[in-house]
Write a structure and sequence with these properties.
The protein is an alpha/beta fold and 291 residues long. Helix content is 42%, strand content 24%. It folds into two domains: 163 residues, 3-Layer(aba) Sandwich (Rossmann fold); 117 residues, Calcium-transporting ATPase, cytoplasmic domain N (3-Layer(aba) Sandwich), CATH 3.40.1110. Helix 12 links the parallel strand 12 and strand 13. The structure holds adenosine-5'-diphosphate and magnesium ion. The site of adenosine-5'-diphosphate has 22 residues, from helix 3, helix 5, strand 5, strand 6 and strand 7. This is Cu2+-exporting ATPase.
Length: 291
Amino acid sequence: AIPLVSQISTALGARRGILVKNKLALEAARSIDVVLFDKTGTLTTGTLGVAAIAATSGSDDEVLALAAAVESKSEHPIARAIVAEAHDRGLAVAESTQFTALAGRGAQAVVDGRDLVVASHRVVVERAITLPVELVQAARDATTAGNTIVYLLEGEAVLGMFALADTVRPESLEAVRDLKERGVRVAMLTGDSHEVAITVAAQLGIDEVFAHVLPGEKADVVAKLQESGSVAMVGDGINDAPALARADVGIAIGAGTDVAIDSAGIVLASSDPRAVGALLKLSKATWRKEL
Ligand code: ADP
Ligand code: MG
């Protein structure tokens, strides 16, 4: 049987959009030392827009249509933004075949017989590709603006660059401030570049940042933080699932992926990061009363 007190607290939680999937997670939430937030889709809306395109071969629309063809089978927020922009511009997007997700790096597919990749700067570095000079300045400008950059690659050739702008959730600043006032350490984790991560963290008053983290490494960051205390991880993506499972309390954003929700003990139905502070408070209030 479910104890009465926790029945009441889950009802209270539900009113604030906190869905308790696992009672043990609700209990563990009373003694959290660190809250580790994923960036994209958690502290930000994850609904990206294409802020700039720089093409080295052909027009912006041509590289955009090719990138959209590659990304059409990906669920990543970057893929969605590129596909939506091509659609908004009324571009004809070819069918792609042999789609492969390059986890934490990009996407690959064959379009009109061409083997294309849309990927992060990490891939450019890993494949020792030389960035065309005309893209260097565009990439620097985008990064300074806090935008995420991906490149369209065909073998060693860089066909173009896309800058993607994300929006910080309006509630995130208050969510971070509230947790810090409760004496909780707040950290941020992302697969994105250090530059973008630092820009977002500075806006939110977060001073502990783990950037350039591959999907398989996110759980390792949780484990590292667990050496100094009890950790709650908040995330939305497929790539967050192992970290959510590893954390003392795994908290999924309601608007996130099914995989993230399945791996979490708590779900924030409202997708509002301020509910994390409310959760900690609710948990403390529940277990202070002798349960
Ligand atoms: P996060 O959720 O923190 O952004 P990911 O691991 O999903 O982390 O992605 C890390 C980086 O890999 C992204 O910032 C992007 O540069 C690149 N990436 C991943 N998937 C794609 C994709 N489908 N298209 C383009 N770039 C991608
Ligand atoms: Mg995310």
